[in-house]
UniProtKB/TrEMBL annotation:
Gene3D superfamilies: Heme oxygenase-like. Coiled coil: none annotated. Residues 15-225 form the Thiaminase-2/PQQC domain. Keywords: Oxidoreductase, PQQ biosynthesis. GO terms for molecular function: pyrroloquinoline-quinone synthase activity. The gene is pqqC. This is Pyrroloquinoline-quinone synthase.
Length: 253
């Protein structure tokens, strides 16, 4: 793990953050490699979409938590766009609705998805870790925790191409969520990275920024570990969680 021993220049700090992504971002997880490579069946893709809904619906809550630590009106006005991107505003239905439509297109019942009844406990715990971290962290560190988004456009491109090419049950309308993120994430991350590079100027601040990114890559990785154990191998689905066989009939209709 990176230990900051002398103050890093802004570009050195960025390089350190990027190196964490290169080593730990969840595009490297075997679950994603299978998902994008066409190695999953419908039930496994459903399990992923259902569980990932937990993260989606919690992102605005996390951003409100960050804003509750923000005393600067100008910064709040910039950051709140992220909330609108997910919750929707005016004509834009928002990312959460786009995700629900993806789940429905995969044959899942909207109300079942929204209830989050069938999700793996690890999905909920991972999200809670992220939200609670942002609730308590100083603003700079809360901002830094979103910086996994530096690496997200690459995974979204891989996912759009991989899922369209490899699954006959996925069509263009279903990858709308990821297409939107291709422009939203770089805009978000440009702002957050610039802010972090300007404001993390001491050794402790830089270390906390780096540790926030370690925390976040762990949050993302842990969710996929749980899904892998439940839905790939050895098939250890926790009691009460989504069982693909129970949902195939709806998908076939
Ligand atoms: O599909 C993905 O792999 C992925 C990863 C991440 C991420 O790196 O946290 C986000 C998203 N997608 C995403 O769609 C999204 O809106 C988002 C917001 C945030 C955040 O931390 O504020 N991360 C992510």
């Amino acid at each position: 793990m990176i230990k900051v021993t002398t103050v890093l220049s802004p570009d050195e700090l960025e390089a350190a953050l990027r190196s964490i992504g290169a080593e730990r971002y969840h595009n490297l997880h075997p679950f994603h490699k299978m998902l994008h490579g066409g190695e999953m069946n419908l039930g496994q893709v459903q399990a992923w979409a259902l569980n990932r809904y937990v993260y989606q619906q919690g992102i605005p809550i996390k951003d409100y938590a960050i804003l509750s630590n923000c005393e600067d009106k100008e910064l709040r006005n910039i950051w709140r766009q992220r909330i609108f991107d997910h919750d929707g505003l005016g004509d834009d239905i928002g990312g959460i609705e786009r995700w629900l439509r993806l789940c429905e297109s995969l044959g899942l019942d909207r109300d079942y998805v929204k209830s989050m009844e069938g999700v793996h406990p690890a999905s909920k715990h991972a999200l809670e870790t992220y939200i609670n971290f942002c609730r308590r962290a100083p603003l700079l560190i809360g901002f830094a925790s979103c910086l996994t988004e530096l690496f997200a456009p690459k995974i979204h491109k891989e996912r759009i191409a991989g899922m369209l090419e490899n699954y006959d049950f996925v069509d263009d309308s279903m990858v709308g969520y990821f297409r939107e993120r291709l422009t939203q994430a770089p805009r978000d991350v440009d702002f957050a990275l610039k802010y972090v590079k300007e404001h993390a100027v001491t050794i402790p601040q830089q270390q906390e920024v780096i540790d926030a990114l370690y925390m976040k890559t762990g949050v993302l990785w842990a969710q996929l570990d749980a899904l892998y154990l439940a839905y790939v191998s050895p098939g250890m689905i926790p009691p009460g969680c989504f069982v693909p066989e129970d949902h195939q009939a709806a998908a076939a209709q």
